[in-house]
Each structure stands twice: as C-alpha cells, then as structure tokens.
Design brief:
By secondary structure, the protein is an alpha/beta fold. It contains eleven helices and eleven strands. The strands form two sheets. Strands 1, 2, 3, 4, 5 and 11 form a six-stranded mixed beta sheet that branches. A five-stranded mixed beta sheet has the order 8-7-9-6-10, with helices on both faces.
C-alpha cells in the first residue's frame, strides 16, 4: 500500500522515522515522504493532503473528524518546551510584537496560555516560519519571538535573552508533560491499516535506538543546523518513552491542551 507521510526535517522526526522512510523489512507500505516545517505540515493536514503526518498537537481538534491521533511517533515530554526570547533585554515588553512560528503550532498556543495568565495587555503577534523567527531575533529585526526545535539550544551562544520557558510554565500550571507534537493517520485508512502504521513507526524507532550514532548522515543532511552536538541534544530531549507510547500521562496532557483549543 502506498501512503503519503509528512514529517519535519528536525532531528527528532528524522531520528524516529528514518528507518521507515528508507524502508523497513517486510513493510506493507511504500511511503511518499514530504519534508516541511511544522506549520506547513499543519496546513497540509487541515487540507487533508496527507495520509500520515507528524504535526503540532494543538491542530488535532481542527482535523479530528478526518484524522486519528496515534499512540506513538510524537513529541511529548518534560523540560522540552518552546522558549520566549528577546533580542533587546531580559524583560518582556508588552509594547513590542512577538513573532510566533505559525498560528497552528503548539508553541503559539503555549505562548497564548502564558500571556493570558501573566500579562494585562492585548496580544501583539506576528507569524513566520520557525527558522525565520530565529534569524529575525539574531538580526534584531524581531524584538521578541518564540523559538522551537534546534534553536532551543543555541540562543545563549547567539546573545539572546530568555524571557520565559513556556514549557516550564505549562508544567507548573497543569502538572502534565508538554504535549508538543503528535502523529496522525487518516481515519479513512481503517483500523487495521492505522494499527499497522503505528507498528511501523514503533519499529522505526526501535531500529533508531539500536544504532551506535544518534545523528546519522540522513539526519544531518535534513537538519537546519550543522553542529552534531546540537543535533544529539535535540534527539535526547525530544525522543523519549512518550515517542514510543503516549501512555496515560501523555494522553492527559493532550486532552488538557485540546480542551484549551476547543475553548472548553
């Protein structure tokens, strides 16, 4: 069976899905793979263009009529949330805009979650692709922005200032891990095929965990940063037991997030 798959080029995604993309032994699937930034993947899923995809966790309530959330292949964890950074100083400035990495990203929702509980002024936000957010912060074009992925590890080196760890705030307020990303499969594939997809993702992760090197050539070629140490730190932070099995704590975190999206 030929299916379409959408994942990002970030090391945690390529680490989990590399063996699947290259072809697992006795796999029932042939994969047409689309690599894109997470906001683009969110938009593709909202248009129903992918059979299977790794997307932002907060997009699910917008597509749940057509897609099923899988119990593996995502990004949930502790101490791994997006960071609100400044290129100006160490205090949040309500008069300055905040650049977010896409309106459908979990990072955008976590920023809104923090802002609603700590700030009095109205929202002043802009949107850009995640790598553009970081470049704009480094150049000073963006005074404040929320960064994700590899850039979580390089902001000190690049002279930026931490205003808020949005993941830490989520953990403090909810008592749950941070539900960043999920894997989805189109419901029309049917229960048997969806179960086989989950098995394939878990097998791909199992293969990754048997390798001697975390950052393979495949991962390095796709990554947005060249430093192998950053790639390895990225994988260690975002790939964990939740990636293999969402589990009770992971589902609780996702349900909490989805209630926010639904306004319940």
């Amino acid at each position: 069976m030929r299916l379409t798959l959408g994942i990002s080029t970030c090391p945690n995604d390529t680490y989990i899905y590399e063996a699947l993309v290259k072809g697992l032994k006795d796999s029932p699937f042939d994969w047409d793979v689309h690599f894109a930034d997470v906001q683009t993947l969110n938009e593709m899923v909202r248009r129903g263009e992918l059979d299977v995809a790794k997307v932002s966790a907060q997009v699910y309530p917008k597509v749940e009529d057509s897609y099923q959330c899988l119990g593996c292949g995502g990004a949930i964890g502790y101490g791994c949330g997006p960071l609100l950074l400044s290129s100006l100083g160490e205090s949040f400035d309500e008069s300055e805009p905040v650049t977010l990495p896409g309106s459908d990203t979990t990072a955008a929702l976590l920023f809104r979650f923090w802002h609603a509980r700590t700030q009095n002024a109205g929202l002043n936000v802009r949107y850009a692709l995640f790598d553009q957010v970081y470049r704009s912060l480094r150049s000073g074009e963006a005074p404040q922005g929320v960064v994700i992925h590899e850039h979580r590890f390089t902001w000190k080196r690049d002279g930026l200032h931490l205003l808020q760890d949005l993941g830490a705030f989520w953990e403090q307020e909810t008592g749950t891990p941070i539900p960043l990303g999920i894997a989805l499969a189109r419901k029309s594939l049917g229960a048997e095929t969806i179960s086989a997809v989950e098995n394939e993702i878990r097998e791909s992760l199992k293969v990754a965990r048997t390798r001697n090197t975390l950052a393979t050539e495949f991962i390095s070629e796709k990554a947005q940063i060249e430093d192998p140490a950053v790639m390895e730190a990225h994988i260690k932070m975002f790939v964990n037991d939740f990636s293999e099995n969402v589990g009770e704590r992971g589902w609780a975190a996702l349900e909490h997030l989805w209630r926010l999206v639904r306004g319940v």
